[in-house]
Amino acid sequence: MKFGQVADASEIDFSFVDIPQETLKYLQKFKEVDGFEVFVGYPKWSKADLKGFYPRGTKDELRYYSEQFNAVEFNGTFYRSPSKEQILTWKERTAEDFRFCPKFTNSISHYSRLNNTDEKVEAFVDATVLFEEKLGMAFLQMPENFRPKVMERVESFMQKFPKGYPLAFEVRHAEWYNDPAVYGEYVDILRSNHITNTQIDTPGRRDTLTFQLTSPVLFVRFVSSTPLIDQLRLQAWVSRIKELKAAGLQQVYFFIHQRIDAETSFLSTDFNTALNRELGTNLPIAHK
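^ that's the sequence the OP posted. Answer follows.
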């Protein structure tokens, strides 16, 4: 994900905004609910994308990936809606506690722009529900030029969206974020339809990380900058997740977008280690 990437991140203020009171009040209703889960992964699992990761002779890359990470932000489904047969194949090739977070196809988000998409949504949902217990949080990312002048279209789409299917929604155009009234209306629509508000932590667009949560799920897409800065950023995330957990947060899906080659370490290694230590999770620790 190149959204919000910058050539030099050294002058950027990466500090978080305070958790909004609306979020804290909303999460209160979940404080007495037992259970807390964290899933951390990367956008793809192929050898071409995770260079230097797979041991020589690895025949099933997905199976190996699912033993080293417990989730994938599944961008492959963005380009082609998967068949039911393909979903079942992927499901059977992964570890027991693994989660897929499939990205809705671009025919819904980018080409149709949410117009007349009922049949396409139904086909995508009908296929991906076959992940069953391995279905994490699907997500739908709108193009950067999708603006809030079509707020009614977003509301209509969300009202018709299949109830009970886990969905995170993402908007990017600055107009969604720079007018408090517009953003407040958008957040209210998400919350009233039990749809998760995607949090984008990217260097060049600090406005997209609002901590306005609309479900008891934190869905984060983290875009790397430089190794030293990223280590500090992820340390801050450990503290913030701990704070949200205390407030009532139930689940975390955290996906790291970073350059991967044979010489580059996974940012998730230290991040997962810290989460395990501070939150008592049992996240796998991958090494290359």
